[in-house]
C-alpha cells in the first residue's frame, strides 16, 4: 500500500480530494484495486459505500483490471454499415477477448463505442486515443503488433538499463 499512501499524502489526506486520489490510483494501477479502496476508506475515514459510489458513477474509473492499451471499436451506424462488426470480430479473435474484457497479460482492454464523431473515417478503431480510420479486419493484426512490439522494445530497454 506504499503507492496508495504516497498518493494520499500528496493530497494531505483530505477527504475533499477523494476524486483526485481515485484518479491517481487509477493512473497507477490502470484500475481501482479493491484493497486500495478499502485502505483508502480507512485512511480517509470515508465509507467504502461512498467510495464505490464515486468509482461506479464516473466512466473513467474501472473496478476491473484494465489493459495498458484501450482499444475502442466504433459500432455507431456509419461505422456499422461500413463493416465495423468484422473489424471487432477480428480484434476479438486476435486477442481472444470480448468487449469489456482485458487480455490475461493486461496489455489490451477492448470496448465498443457508439459514434466518436468522426463518421467519415469509418469504420473507426481507436487505440489509446489514436484514431485508425477506414479500418478493415486485414489491418488489425498489423496495428496490434505495433503495440506489442513497442512493449517488447520498452521491456528490452528497461532490461538493458539494469545491467
Ligand atoms: S459512427 Fe463511428 S464515428 Fe460516427
CATH topology of the largest domain: Glutaredoxin
Shape: elongated
Number of strands: 4
CATH class group of the largest domain: Alpha Beta
Mean pLDDT equals 92
Overall CATH architecture of the largest domain: 3-Layer(aba) Sandwich
What count of domains describes the coordinates? 2
> What is the N-to-C succession of helices and strands?
HHHHEHHEEEH
Q: Nearest-angstrom radius of gyration?
A: 19 Å
Broad structural category = alpha+beta
Approximately how much helix is present in the residues? 40-55%
Low-confidence stretches: none
**CATH H level of the largest domain: which superfamily?**
Glutaredoxin
The DSSP helix count reads 7
Strand content: 5-15%
Strand order of the largest sheet: 2-1-3-4
Q: Note the main sheet.
A: 4 strands, mixed
Q: State the end-to-end distance.
A: 28 Å
Q: What small-molecule ligands were found?
A: FE2/S2 (inorganic) cluster
Question: Could you characterize the architecture of this molecule?
Answer:
The chain has 2 domains: 56 residues, no CATH class; 93 residues, Glutaredoxin (3-Layer(aba) Sandwich). 52% of the residues lie in helices and 11% in strands. It starts with a helix and ends with a helix. A 4-stranded mixed beta sheet has the order 2-1-3-4, covered by helices on one side. The protein is of the alpha+beta class and 163 residues long. It is elongated and about 50 Å long. FE2/S2 (inorganic) cluster (FES) binds next to helix 5.
Amino acid at each position: 500500500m506504499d503507492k496508495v499512501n504516497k498518493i494520499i499524502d500528496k493530497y494531505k489526506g483530505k477527504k475533499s480530494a477523494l476524486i483526485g486520489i481515485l484518479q491517481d490510483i487509477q493512473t497507477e494501477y490502470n484500475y481501482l484495486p479493491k484493497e486500495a479502496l478499502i485502505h483508502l476508506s480507512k485512511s480517509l475515514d470515508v465509507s467504502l459505500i461512498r467510495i464505490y459510489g464515486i468509482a461506479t458513477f464516473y466512466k473513467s474509473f474501472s473496478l476491473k483490471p484494465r489493459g495498458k492499451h484501450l482499444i475502442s471499436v466504433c459500432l455507431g451506424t456509419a461505422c456499422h454499415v461500413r463493416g465495423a462488426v468484422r473489424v471487432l470480430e477480428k480484434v476479438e479473435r486476435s486477442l481472444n477477448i470480448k468487449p469489456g474484457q482485458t487480455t490475461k497479460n493486461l496489455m489490451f482492454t477492448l470496448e465498443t463505442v457508439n459514434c466518436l464523431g468522426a463518421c467519415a473515417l469509418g469504420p473507426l478503431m481507436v487505440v489509446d486515443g489514436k484514431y485508425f480510420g477506414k479500418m478493415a479486419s486485414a489491418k488489425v493484426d498489423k496495428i496490434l503488433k505495433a503495440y506489442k512490439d513497442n512493449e517488447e522494445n520498452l521491456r528490452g530497454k528497461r532490461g538493458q538499463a539494469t545491467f
